[in-house]
Design goal:
By secondary structure, the protein is mostly beta strands. The protein has 2 helices and 20 strands. The longest helix has 24 residues. The protein starts with a helix and ends with a helix.
């Protein structure tokens, strides 16, 4: 779908239609509207704990898989609400010779009246061992409640980079927050935001990403109403990349809560959006076809093609869409005022004033 379409089409694309024209005959073309987002497939791997021990280096937990399977993620859960530990993860097929997978990997949990943040997910390259040994450096025995071992694969979607027009940053000392206003050239789909955030120390701060839904003019200039896209945590432990539902937007507001901490050094901002694709069936290729949109009174179409999506061939022909044009057959009905000439309006006002005066005089006389 071309970018200029997003500016004038209805939200949800209920107004999208494809018509083929042959003289006076018009043929409506059924279609599917698809977006290629990332698809995450996670498969849990069965295992059993076989050993738990400790020495001067820390506490050890050994897990044995039912078979030597490929894994790349372990999710941990602990009884403690507050901790800051370094861990080492090793793999072995014999339970005697060990190979390092992760070293000095940090896991963290902070829970108080202001913060509830945890980072206890171990991510690493694909590994295939029968045994895995986890070592936690802690002065006291960790209360390990659960470990989930997974093999996670991500099927990449189709994205396009989105350029922004302006980037305005304001460190608000009164509200103890950093606000970034981002303006785009035109409304386009957005589903991913990456922020370059740096500090001399580790950090974890609340972050909120919003997009403008509409605007209104005031004495102080243009003001905007915003809706939420994402709420979470900006942390030095995790990659500052945020995914959210693909949304058509032209203006963003990013709010980072600093509390009593020094504002972060914020640099490059990267935006991406899922590309919308139209899959259509053209029964008569010789016709002249066009995509129509912009009718805010029309309802979403219902096509049988969506019931038979599995039968659509994998190798389809790509079509190039031309430049946007005004629909010459579309006319807007202009409602004329009751009195086009102002003389009639003044005359009517004079009659009303005269009647009011007459009724008032009659009431006073009685």
């Amino acid at each position: 779908m071309p970018n200029q379409l997003y500016k004038n089409a209805n939200s949800g694309f209920d107004d999208l239609r494809i018509f083929g024209v042959d003289g006076k005959d018009t043929l409506e073309v059924p279609y599917l509207l698809k977006q290629r987002a990332d698809k995450v497939i996670s498969k849990e791997v069965d295992f059993k704990p076989v050993n738990e021990s400790a020495n001067s280096n820390g506490f050890f937990y050994t897990f044995q898989l039912n078979s030597a399977s490929t894994i790349n993620q372990i999710n941990l859960a602990f009884k403690e609400g507050n901790f800051n530990w370094q861990i080492t993860l090793e793999g072995s097929n014999t339970n005697t010779e060990w190979f390092t997978i992760l070293k000095d990997y940090r896991i963290l949990s902070i829970k108080n009246n202001d913060t509830d943040y945890q980072f206890t997910k171990l991510s690493f390259p694909d590994s295939k061992y029968l045994y895995y040994r986890l070592m936690i450096r802690s002065a006291e025995k960790p209360g390990l409640l659960e470990a989930l071992i997974n093999k996670t694969d991500t099927i990449k979607g189709t994205y396009q980079d989105v350029k922004y027009k302006t980037f305005r940053l304001n460190n608000d000392a009164v509200n103890k927050e950093t606000v970034i206003d981002v303006t785009l050239e035109n409304p386009v789909p957005l589903s991913n935001l990456s922020l370059n955030a740096q500090s001399d120390f580790d950090f974890y701060r609340s972050i909120k990403i919003e997009y403008a839904t509409d605007s209104f003019k005031t004495d102080k200039g243009m003001q905007y109403n915003y809706a939420s896209l994402y709420q979470g945590t900006l942390s030095s432990l995790e990659k500052p990349e945020y995914n959210f539902e693909n949304t058509i937007a032209s203006r963003l507001k990013i709010t980072i809560q600093n509390n009593d901490n020094k504002p972060l050094r914020l640099g490059k901002l990267e935006l991406k959006g899922n590309i919308y694709e139209i899959i259509a069936r053209f029964d008569k290729p010789k016709l002249t076809y066009a995509i129509f949109y912009g009718n805010d009174k029309i309802k979403a179409p219902s096509y049988e093609i969506e019931k038979f999506e599995s039968k659509i061939p994998e190798n389809l022909t790509s079509l190039t869409i031309g430049e946007e044009q005004k629909n010459s057959t579309y006319t807007t009905k202009i409602e004329k005022p009751l009195f086009e000439n102002k003389v009639w309006l003044w005359a009517l006002m004079a009659v009303i004033i005269a009647l009011l005066g007459w009724f008032s005089f009659k009431m006073l006389k009685n």
